[in-house]
Structures are given as C-alpha cells and as structure tokens.
Amino acid sequence: MRGLQLSVKSGSIEFGDEIIFRGADFTVNPSEHIGLVGKNGCGKTSLLKALTGELELTSGAVSNSGFKIGTLSQISLDESLSLEDCLRSAYKEILNLEERLSFLEANMGTDERLIAEFSALTERYRLLGGYSYTGEYKAALSSFGFSHDDLEKPLSSFSGGEKTKIALLRLLLSSPSLLLLDEPTNNLDIEAVRWLEKFLSDYKGAFVLVSHDREFLDKTVNIIYEIEHYTLSRYKGNYSAFSKIKKQKYEEDLKRYKNDRLEAERLSALIEKFRYKANKAAFAQAKIKQLERMGPIEKPLAADNKTFHSSFTPEMESGEEVLYTRDLKIGYDKPLSKVSLSLKRGERLAIIGGNGLGKSTFLKTITGHIPALSGEMGFGHLVKPAYFSQDSASKISSATVIEEMLDAFPKKSPAEIRNILGSFLFRGDDVFKEISALSGGERVRLSLCKVLASRPNLLILDEPTNHLDIPSKEALENILKEFSGTILFVSHDRFFIRQIASKIMVLDGGVHFFDGGYSDYEENYSPEKASPASSIKEKKAPQINVLKEKSRIERKISTVEKNIEDIEKKIADLKASLLSEEVSSDYIKLEEISGLISLEEEKYLSLMTDWEALSEELERLKSI
Questions:
Q1: Domain limits of the chain?
Q2: CATH number belonging to domain 1-68+176-237
Q3: pTM metric for this prediction
Q4: What is the arithmetic mean of pLDDT over 477-484?
Q5: Secondary-structure class of domain 548-622 per CATH
Q6: Alpha carbons 18 and 13: distance in angstroms, whole number
Q7: What DSSP assignment string belongs to 569-619?
Q8: Phi and psi of 240, rounded to 5°?
Q9: In this predicted structure, what is the pLDDT of residue 539?
Q10: Which fold has domain 321-542?
C-alpha cells in the first residue's frame, strides 16, 4: 500500500464564465476515509469525475500513483448472470485461487514443489478472506433487502432500483484500493445504510465519499474536504469534528480581524499625530513600517449557509386526537402491513422500516391517494393536513415556479406569492423557471414551500430530506422544531429523525411503537427478533426496566454534574488569570486565555443542555 497516492494540484474547473472551484489541492493517501461535503452545485461530483479523468480540469493536474479506482459508473452488469454469480465475480482473485488449489489438491501427490505451492496459496487464500467471502456477500444481500431465494434469479428479473443496489454491492465487494462513491446511501433503507457504514468503517482501502448524511459521515470518515466559496479545504476528523473546528476557526479569524483593525487604526492615529513633528519623525516612520508589515486586513468569509427559511403557524389548532387507524391493512395486490394507531396533537411520529414494507404506502393510504384494503381510519376534529410526497417533489411540468404557486393559492396576489417564494430562495428571475428545469433540491424546496404556505396543523412528509444539502436539512429541522402542530413522516435520515421524532413506528411485517424517539428505538429494537416480512401482526415494543433505567440516568446525571463543576472551576481560574499583571499587559496572552474561556463556556453550555435533557427523562421515568 506504500507509495499509493492520488492528488490534484492547483486544480480548477470552470464552465464558461461559471467558476466551480479554483486552485484546489486535494490528496488521497492509503487507508484514508474521506468525506467530500458542500452545498448542492458546489462541484463535489465534478471533482470526483476529475479524479477518474471523466472530466478534464480547466487548469491544474491530477496524478495517480498506483491506486486502482472503483466507481459505480464502471460497473457493467451482465444481466444473463444470476445474482449469486454476479456477486461472486467480485472475488476474482479468490475464485482463481480456488480453481488452482482444487487442481493442486487433485494432482500434487508427493510432489514437494506442488505441495509448497499449495501451502503458500492456502495462506494467501486465507488472507484474502477465502473462508468467509460467501458469508460476506450473503449478509450484505440480506441487509440490502434481498432474500436467499433471490440468489438464483437472473439480473434481468430485478427492477432498476434493485440493479443499482446490486451494482453498488458488486463494487464494494470487489475491494478496489480506492473507492469513489457519490451519494451511496440514496434509496437504501436504514438497515442497508448500517451495513454500508460497518463495511466502509472497516474498509482497509481508501475511499472518497460524497454524502449529505451527517450520521453516515460521522461513522465512516476520518478526513473532511469542504468545497465553499470556490475553494477546497481539508479538515481532520469526522463531520461533527469538522463542524466544530470550522466554527472555532471562523470565530478566531474574526476576532483576529477585529483586533488587527483596531491595531491598524491605533497605528494610523499615532502616525497622523506625530508625522509632522520633527522630534517624532523617526517614531512615526517606525509606525508606518509596522503598519505596512501588517499588510491588507481582510474580513474572513462567513460560512455559506444561505438557505430557505419559513416562520408559519397553523391556521387553526386541531382536536386532541389528530389521526386514528384501526386494523388498517395497506398494500396493493396483497397486504404489506396492518396498522392501528392513535396520533395525538403535538406528537411527531417517524415511520421507519425496510424498503417495500409499506411506509410510503401508509402515507398514501391515509391521504386518500390509494384505497385501504380493509380497516378503519379518520382524521380528528379541525385537522388540516398537508402532504409532501416523493411524487410531488419529482414532478415534471412546463409550468413556471410562480404559476405553480398561483395555481395552488389563487386568493394570494403575485406580490404575496413572490414574498413566500423568496423565503425559499426563489428570487428575481428564478420564479419564472420552468419546473422541468429545476434541480432535485429546487423541486423539494418548491414542494415544501407549497406545503408550509397552506398553514396546516398536520404535516405528512414522505422523505422530505431527499436531494437537500446539509444547510437545507438543518433549515428544515429548525422549521419543524418550531412547528406547533403534529408531524407524521417517513425518513431514512437518522440524524434528521433524531432531531424531529418524539415517537417511532417500525414496519417490519409487524408494527412496533417506541415512545422515546430514535434513541429508544435503537436501545430496544432487535431486527433479528422482528417478524417475517410475509406476516402481518401487531407487536408491542419491549418494555424497559424502569428501575434499571432510572439508575442509569441518575449515574449519567451525576457524571454530567461533576463535569459541570470542573468546567465552572476552570472558567473561574481562567477569568482570574486575566486580572494578573503579567497577562493584562500582554496582548497575545489576553487573546489566548480569552479563546480558552470561550471554548470552556461552549462545553459548559453543551453539558447544561445534556443535564436538562437527562433531568426531564428522569422525571418522566419517576412518573411511570
């Protein structure tokens, strides 16, 4: 693996007058797990294409010293093969070894040369995973939603989406020394994402991964490259570490900028005061040189987090019961699930589960887009629902953005509509774009704009974060956190679910409910105990041991309180040191200690947030 390196030196990509990025330096070393992040349209996919030679740099150079690169676009599926033969073909070296070992076993007899070769190849076979590769691809298949019966099926019998997942698996299992992956979690359910997470975190080779999934990035990468303001920056650590370091760096740069400006103003004032006094001329000249040495003082660029925003309240408050279903069988030609639930005002219910088990079907059924197979359902008193569907977000139309909104809200004036669209980043001539010309992210924004502008008290959302970049996801999270109504949503984005859900409903052939949000689901749900996908029966979530859980929470609170005390003492000591003569007269030390105080205060606020959450959870457990 030594000597392997892929690099871009001073790379730029421009399309006419449009700059994508410029002066980029990018390096991949052996075993580095790299996440490539940035807003939609910043050039992440263009950079990946430049690394493979699919797209030529406008300037700069790409060099590859020995990496064998694997990309999804390179995978060509022979549709006459069975699924098993397709996946086995990823293990070309192992299969060749099996063939040679079989020959040697049959022919070596007492030939010492062949016996030695057999021994050496057996060790090589072991090191390559020859004794475990069959279990590896079968486990992967199961996590990606395929059954044992699918192994013998020809690839031609699978859907387009299934073939994409098969191609991804084929690529991963072939283990090139460098993987380039562009949004690999698209169309994967949570269990498949978890398998992919484990696979990539254990991957011995290197990979470059484009993703907007924050939890996936946190669990798989150890280097982050960000494209922002047309430049590329490298950070050590996962996504959370990058976010923290980036914020701290900006605050430090801003503080330095302000201090430099003050210093420049001070020097300028001294120069102006003494430059025309003969006995102070040397002093003034020294200050002039000092000011020149400071060079230009440029304000640091703030993070490019410009995204949509909305502040809306429901038109009316609903009754206590918002939605009920009783033995509601959902499906098309056959039942997928049977759901009984009572959704109360203010609850935020996330629906999760494997692909094809009825999550979107349930939403389509309760919104009247498809009929129920049997059972009852209904909305409560004064419930005003609004439905965001995957179909509406992928709509192709020759209508313009403003025409679409005027048609949806005929009582609003064009000026009112333009104000609403402006808050979702459709400004100026953007409102006259045809919907068919919008990107995936723009269509999602337009659909969300229509849903929220109707001022519902029940939001029904089907994968609302698809095609959104991270700033847009964070914006949507903030909107939903402030929403005073009820939310029912389907999502595969675990970070998003953690932020929004107060309850979880799992569809796995049966139905499971968890009242403590995603953390409760993670602690108490066991996929291996789930009912087969073919059965339809309702199960209750496993009961937690309340006394044991209270004890666990109390221990956590005690630890957090101890940490709070330690930080309070540290902050007090640092503040006291600011008053000492040694520090108060030293500008550099003042700045350094002030920075340390800021860092400790951030930790203090984070710990206080944890303490409040744990205390609320303890009170809830005491009431059980």
A1: 1-68+176-237, 80-172, 253-294, 321-542, 548-622
A2: 3.40.50.300
A3: 0.75
A4: 93
A5: mainly alpha
A6: 9
A7: HHHHHHHHHHTSHHHHT-HHHHHHHHHHHHHHHHHHHHHHHHHHHHHHHHH
A8: -65, -40
A9: 40
A10: Rossmann fold (3.40.50)
